[in-house]
Amino acid sequence: MAERLPTLFIPHGGGLCFFMNPPPQFPHLWDGLAAHLRGIDASLGVRPKAVVVISGHWEAERPTVNVGERPPLLFDYYNFPEHTYRLTYPAPGAPELGARVRELLCGAGFETDADAERGFDHGVFVPFKLIYPDADVPVLQLSLREGLDPAEHLAMGRALAPLRDEGVLIVGSGMSYHNLRQMFSGQGNEAANAFDDWLGETVADAARRDAGLVRWREAPGGRESHPREEHLLPLMVAAGAAAGEPAVRDFNERLRGKGLSGFRFG
């Protein structure tokens, strides 16, 4: 039997941040996060057979898996430099794993769909160009479910937990803070850091984690940090897939004064 893998919640950065020149007044703005993402492969100690990644940039009526053999890239951004539309990430898809994911979700009561045409969005290819730069690990993308209910996404994670014993790495790709209007404004730092503190404490408490995450909107700075929660919901899937197991905050830094965190579960 394969060694049980942890699950991850990774911040995927701001847009195409790792592949553009940073602001001249902040030349090292994304260096810490880039180093964290580049270190994930070695930190796992084992190469997964495949990755299931849930990005904050795909929502569907029902949980949907990308079952393409060789998914293209979906350049789901606007007014970026021309070279960012020529990026490549030729990782193979994982259609057989897609069938397994749908089986597990069906067993938990979820109706699902498959999509063989959609490309990897930038919540997938941007961080994974750093995590597995040779694009040599099969990647299966799974959508969020419209409505963005935290309890449903925790349940999706619980359904997928057996994959961890099958050599599959489950990754939620989002941002622990995602208020674009205030991110670099110098405003809202107190609320952002209150939520970052709450999130770290909640994730670390395995016994109460799920109950706390369901009520994230009530947390200090919660709604200020996430005017819309699509970038937080991938964390719910990663947490659900390691329900009751220990977790650590494996990345944390202040990004222009606002706390940004990543977590490892299990």
Could you explain how this protein is built, in words?
The protein has 266 residues and is of the alpha/beta class. The protein has a single domain (7-265), classed as Protocatechuate 4,5-dioxygenase, Chain B (3-Layer(aba) Sandwich). Helix content is 31%, strand content 20%. The strands form two sheets. A six-stranded mixed β-sheet has the order 5-2-6-1-8-7, with helices on both faces. A two-stranded parallel ribbon has the order 3-4. Helix 4 (150-160) runs parallel beside helix 8.
Relevant CATH superfamily: LigB-like
Structural class: alpha/beta
Secondary structure tally: strands = 8
Percent in strands? 15-25%
Average pLDDT works out at 97
Count of structural domains: 1
Q: What is the helix fraction of residues, given as a range?
A: 25-40%
Task: List low-pLDDT spans.
Answer: none
**Outline type:** globular
Helix segment tally: 8
The largest sheet, given as strand count, sense and whether it forms a barrel, is: 6 strands, mixed
State the CATH architecture.
Answer: 3-Layer(aba) Sandwich
Spell the H/E element sequence. EHEEHEHEHEHHHHEE
Write out key terms for the chains shown.
266 residues, alpha/beta, Protocatechuate 4,5-dioxygenase, Chain B, six-stranded mixed beta sheet, 8 helices, globular
